[in-house]
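Office hours follow-up: a student asked to see two folded examples consecutively, so here they are.
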Amino acid sequence: MRQKLIVVLSVTVLTIMLAPLTGASPQRKQVDDRDYTEREDINQTYELAPGARVELSVISGSVDVETTNGNTAEVHIVRMGETRKDLDCYTVAIEHTPTSLIMRHKQERTDDCQNIRAKQQVTLRLPRNVDLKLNAISGPVKIGEIDGALRLSGISGRVEVAQALGYSEISASGAFSRYRFRE
């Protein structure tokens, strides 16, 4: 009986010790937007010249790019975090000239900002005749009809593109990327 108990305990301890090596992990609680009690909206408009460069980088959440025939770009970003500190640690930078619109999130590199929980929902209304680059997006991406160049890299989520008439460059990001081009 004692030997049987030692074997059972040994197997249990060994299983617990080897679990991290097998990729097994405890189930994580499903998180939805209601878990992010702190919110901040960014709503901006910018005039862009035909063929302007538009870049969006380092987004944790969905990205929806709608296109229009005009020259005005509309930026709507909903920033969400569990605490105000999370929003303060993870900010958005927007740089604009008539020939470029660059948006990226930046995380502070302090001890207080190491473990934050934040995400974004981005909706862009862009002129069709821009060059669009999306990089490091963790979430689904939906893009309307683009007449200029389209560059996608580091996207871990479903990607749907209505139409890209210009040069396209797509770099998949692991097993979580699925690309679909509508006809």
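And the second, which I mentioned at the end of office hours:
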Amino acid sequence: MLAIDPEVTGQRALKASEELLMAISADILDRKETHFVLWRPGMTAIRAPELVIGTLKAGYPAELDNLQELPMTLAAGLPGLWEIPASDCQLTDGQIYHYWFKVEDTGANSSPLPLISCTDPMAYTVDWRLFPSDASDNRQPAAVILWQDGKLVPCDPGGKQVSFKHDVSPEKLPRNNQLVIYELPTAWVMSRELNEAYCDVGTFRDVRATP
């Protein structure tokens, strides 16, 4: 009879799991240049996630125009990693897009599981003006991305992109092992009536505008 050491078997499984996680984490940012990517490790979906994407229609409230709902597929050899090539989404070059992922609500007790729209967990930017039409609260803002020259480019809702060309090379920076980092919440509170506060999210632009 073959003897199996459970401790050794467990260590091998853990190592294999760590190697898989490292491979995905190292590769996922490269994939995000050309694909919409959703990583749901350990989740066995009955229904494939969908990409819900469109353009912002300004107003109050803001709406998603030119709506598309596109099924995603599992990445080959990477369990839990769902993706769809941006080139398959009929996007217009130079256009800013807002999007969510529609997934099964694993917190629900019903069967089949209902679908909910969620923010891209790895979004570069979100727009707090736009929320899913089926949402009961404002907890899932739309993610924002620019489609330009065949690539998905990080930008803000106005199209402004990050530039690091004037940044000092990390090799020339002073040692940073004694940094003190302060958290600056951007939420704001306004008192409408006695003992009734109104809270909402703000932006760092609001902070900079504060005298």
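Two things to take away from it. The chain has a mean pLDDT of 81. Residues 29 and 146 are 15 Å apart (CA to CA).
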